[in-house]
Amino acid sequence: MAKGDRAAFEELYRRTAPWMAVRLSRRCADEQIVAEVMQETYLAVWRAASAFAGSAVGGTAVGWLWTIAARRLVDAFRRRAHHAEPPPAAASQPVAPAAEEEVLAATVGGDVGDALRRLAPELRQVLQAMVLDGLSVRETAVLLGLPEGTVKTRARRARTEMRRALA
């Protein structure tokens, strides 16, 4: 793909688009925003494929793709906030656990996994956005529709509860 191979791009899209759509939908109930973010993400990936150096830093292509998508979602929320009320969060709707939460629960075992599962959902959301998705406090606040101070407080509470549970 880095060399402009359209078939390689199509294969990446075929393999990752369904997963990406579900993951974005878990964070945003507005299908139009999700569609826009998907389009912007894959366009950015196509344009910047030659810049991907994941193997040199231990990253994965899927992780790189998600980082781009998460940042594009935050940007979309910011654009929409200038024109109207923020879109309703998907988390306010009763849904099954996100796939990444299930994977995390299955991969992170032992005491750490138990401590993560015992965290309140609002604390786990903040940890997921900041630690797993690599978002800043500001980006997490926009993504979750929370004030930055609330994000900081929840992140601190989550870390404190994790330390206490693992002590």
UniProtKB/TrEMBL annotation:
Transmembrane segments: 48-70
Pfam family, one: Sigma70_r2
Domain RNA polymerase sigma factor 70 region 4 type: residue ranges: 112-162
Residue ranges of domain RNA polymerase sigma-70 region in the record: 12-81
Gene Ontology BP annotations: DNA-templated transcription initiation
InterPro entries, A to Z: RNA_pol_sigma-70-like (IPR039425), RNA_pol_sigma-70_dom (IPR014284), RNA_pol_sigma70_r2 (IPR007627), RNA_pol_sigma70_r4_t2 (IPR013249), RNA_pol_sigma_r2 (IPR013325), RNA_pol_sigma_r3/r4-like (IPR013324), WH-like_DNA-bd_sf (IPR036388)
UniProt keyword list: Membrane, Sigma factor, Transcription, Transcription regulation, Transmembrane, Transmembrane helix
Leader peptide range in chain numbering: none
Top-rank lineage group of the source organism: Bacteria
GO MF entry, a single one: DNA binding
Family: Belongs to the sigma-70 factor family. ECF subfamily.
Record's protein name: RNA polymerase sigma factor
Organism field: Streptomyces spongiae
